[in-house]
Design brief:
Layout lengths: L1 E5 L13 E13 L2 E17 L9 E19 L9 E14 L22 E12 L4 E15 L17 E15 L2
Antiparallel strand pairs: 1-2, 1-8, 2-3, 3-4, 4-5, 5-6, 6-7, 7-8
Length: 189
Amino acid sequence: VFLGVLSPATGVFDYGPGPGTALGARYGLRLGGPFALESTFTYFPTQRSLIDPGRSEGDRKIGEVDADILALDARLRFSLTGDRAWRGLTPFVLAGAGVAMDLAGEDPAEETLLEDDRFEFGTPFLGVLGTGVAWLATDRLQIRTDVGILIWQIRAPKGYRDPSRGLVGVDNREWVGGPSLSLGAAFRF
């Protein structure tokens, strides 16, 4: 299990999920030598800005709504010390991919926006790159910290792409990412 802090970018128009605290679980399986395969489940309750693109710049944010992000991914971890530890420490690097989804659903406050102006998180691809260190406190207990970057794609609502509005910097899809930091404990068996 782990507790973390995520700080994703919210996109050009600030409608994506913002920073917050995450809680998760991870299961790892050693493949041999320095390699391990992990599956990670992360729950990230946060908020996102409610943006009205029909208003003038600087006055577009009309509130905030909940975003309950659930991320599922698989990661390949490479231990820099192989299958050994130095003074109980094992530094590693990892890379992974998965999906994320917003479990919050539509907030009643979003009904104030035109239907084409409502942001939907969808189920975007999730990419993970990171590093960290695991400390073998005992033969069975491991304490681990990870630092990484999470990236996902957000899609601009249809109303933002309307050329008559003259919004600058609108792409159909936008890659956003941000740093993450987590601290966790594991039971090895």
